[in-house]
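Recall that a protein's primary structure is simply its ordered list of amino acids. Everything else, from secondary elements to tertiary packing, is in principle encoded there. The following example makes that idea concrete.
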Amino acid sequence: MTQRHSASVAIVGAGPVGLTLALDLAWRGIDVVLAEQRAAAEVPSVKCNHISSRSMELFRRLGIARDIRAVGLPDDYPNDVVFRTRATGFELTRIPIPSRKDRFTRSGGPDTSWPTPEPAHRANQIFFEPVLFRHASHTRGITLLSRTRVEGFHQHDDRVEIDARELDSDRTLRIEARYLIGCDGGRSAVRRHIGAKLTGDELIQRVQSSYIRAPRLIELVTPPPAWMSYVYNRERAGNVVAIDGRERWLIHNYLRPEESDFAAVDRDRCIRAILGVGADFQYEVLREEDWIGRRLIADRFRSGRVFLCGDAAHIWVPYAGYGMNAGIADAANLSWVLAAHLKGWAPQSILDAYELERLPITEQVSRFAMRHAEGAIRERTHLPLELEERSAAGAAARAQVGSAAYRLHVQQFACAGLNFGYFYETSPLIAYDGEPPPPYTMAHYTPSTVPGCRTPHLWLADGRSLYDALGPYYTLLRFDPRVEISPLIRAMQRRGVPLAVLDVEPRHPAADGTSPEPRLETAYRHKLLLSRSDQHIAWRGDRVPENPDTLVERLRGAGADGTIRA
């Protein structure tokens, strides 16, 4: 007998992206069915090791950031990124990153003083994904179907009918939903079913990855320890990631261009060469996780009532930790427009914004990651002969390689630009005013209130983060309480668009009269600003527009293209 389920939204794939999307939709009052082939709480892959600041900001809004920040390495374990000739060899350079204990108190260095209440967190997926799963399993409105494979679906004018199978019982399931979201990874069946094609660069690098248990290694690595250790020598190049800060490690062995067959590369010999240990060193391979770095993007993120998120929509080399985190950004973007339509205050056309906003950003950020990967490949394949010599020439070579490695890689580990600099340039939901957004790089950005940019963070006079004061959809920030805003409020009410209003009083100046956040004085130049719940700016001005209804229609995705004059 076929078992039936129904919900407003069905999600295929309960990895970090699918779980985040389900949690965000449920937070907005939207019921979800989430289908996953793995068993409930099955330990995931060790692929991802970095949760970006923007992802942590979303988890803060959902009330789970503290739980996520509590997992990973021990409190006092250095989160530094180090470059060595071997894990047990010479240190070339070090990028200091605070441990969890010092995350909010350390100053100085490239990874402190982030313009956010939630800086990045380093924790492996095997620790933080179970936190997401636990919260999802206890959240009202989320139905989790573990050990369930989606086998096909059919779209209708008002719904999607999904055929699935319980893998343990072989029982068939029928799921009916108004919308279907494929969060089912790089081999996405949902993507194939809607006929979307991946295009881009099929091969950037091959990496032989081994998840190992080696209790003695922590005693042998060159002190002090680090979260991530790049290894550069002329025999092998690789990366050693501390998973639990005790005995579990992930070893990446970067294959040479001529090494096209993973099985033909001696895994044990390469691991020992990267670690710098002899034949007597004992370790256990827990899992082989070989992968190919690519830069591939789906030619579309949507077909009718079906959408793609995360690796189902884009795959790239995991530099700057932005594979999973870009998927979480997809989820944050899609969730609020889906909820806006399902709650009835926005037409279905608001959903067009998802692909129009996210696809160009995905293309842009993927090229940042690819260029960085290409630079790293050049770096580790052109090493001086004397790099490991105990001589003056060897010391000079190590200093040169270390200096170059720091300059290249500090960009990806302190990537403020990728977190806070990207903007939506062609959105149908944003009222642009002609000012171009400031450019950004992987590492650097300029805070800006140009529509489409991220709402710059500031601390309020009462000690709260601005982001903690934002409403679930649109928030009108008023920097001058004398400005009349009732016409805009009434226009939003006429269309049922949720609007929170916040009279902003920034944190008071320091005793010497200096601003606590001087960069924001040039960013916040307008008296009014509309911020979306995903922290992107929808409109700004010094007074309410003459035609507030035209602005509201644009915010609803109703296709209003008229001039919005202040």
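The longest strand covers residues 198-213. DSSP finds 15 helices and 23 strands in the chain.
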